[in-house]
Amino acid sequence: MVKLIYTLADHGDDVNCCAFSFSLLATCSLDKTIRLYSLSDFTELPHSPLKFHTYAVHCCCFSPSGHILASCSTDGTTVLWNTENGQTLAVMEQPSGSPVRVCQFSPDSTCLASGAADGTVVLWNAQSYRLYRCGSVKDGSLVACAFSPNGSFFVTGSSCGDLTVWDDKMRCLHSEKAHDLGITCCDFSSQPVSDGEQGLQFFRLASCGQDCHVKVWVVSFTHIFARSTEDHLKQFTEDWSEEDVSTWLCAQDLKDLVGIFKMNNIDGKELLNLTKESLADDLKIESLGLRSKVLRKIEELRTRVKSLSSEIPDEFICPITRELMKDPVIASDGYSYEKEAMENWISTKKRTSPMTNLVLPSVVLTPNRTLKMAINRWLETHQK
């Protein structure tokens, strides 16, 4: 049975989102306001509507305790409100200034994620109201966000149809095209499922899109994290140039194949993807014994990559690109960044810190030679 019990008609324009806490209903609208209603009788609270945003409000959500409400807007801000009195607790500006389309609290209320129209996603510390980490997707606006029930990772969905999985340090763990015409919403089931054999827990994720499809996924943080670590380490080999591959061939006593590999433009990424079929059909290596030797060496390379159990230290990762830094510089906010990424940030964004969201006292970038040497030493150790 379905029965309408109440209709609320207080907003003056389209209502974009609604959210429940244990005692309240929140709504937000193109009319720039957020309204709060009591669930006991659906009367509007005395301090409602909440007014701060200068443009349309796209999303609102309660913290798990229900004491804090977050709202985000075209004006590029995410605002935290005290639900008991309607006071503004914090105004957090998206570093890029782009319209913020979605916001979501972590299950333990320690973090808040905000996703914007330019594809940037920010993880905020919900206690200090400071920027913790930021990242971005390649294409489209971020329009959906959901945390796993244990808070270890979260998922964003874009208007281009991509689902992206992030860990709590804003490392991109997985990304793939999920819907052809854009994602509209995604959410996790609160109950994990077990594989029954190895005792691993999986989370079910549902996504829906403008392609008329609803898709259900199973996500394992253990597997994804292992893949993330492997991908970070594998990038060393994937970044090999054709000359690097030639050097590797010579080291494996396969120098007779250097000419063939160069002729076919085999770089690190292509090397890792070679199969017995491609060696025979594409590279025209006729000797079965030689093909077998090449495959053994490639498999040894893959195995060595996978066996590198040490994760890249977080201080070696650029906060903007989330990749290992090659030319680190120190900005005036005291943090280190990849030089090219930070130069692009300063030239195309507001003159604010990617880490703190505060105005940079200076745009001077100083080479961090100590960090660069530490990264090079780490690389030498892990690429032997």
UniProtKB/TrEMBL annotation:
GO biological process: protein ubiquitination
InterPro entries reported for this sequence: SAM (IPR001660), SAM/pointed_sf (IPR013761), Ubox_domain (IPR003613), WD-SAM-U-box (IPR052085), WD40/YVTN_repeat-like_dom_sf (IPR015943), WD40_repeat_CS (IPR019775), WD40_repeat_dom_sf (IPR036322), WD40_rpt (IPR001680)
Domain U-box residues, every copy: 311-384
Domain SAM: 240-304
Pfam families (UniProt xref): SAM_2 (PF07647), U-box (PF04564), WD40 (PF00400)
Keyword field: Repeat, WD repeat
Name by which UniProt lists this protein: WD repeat, SAM and U-box domain-containing protein 1
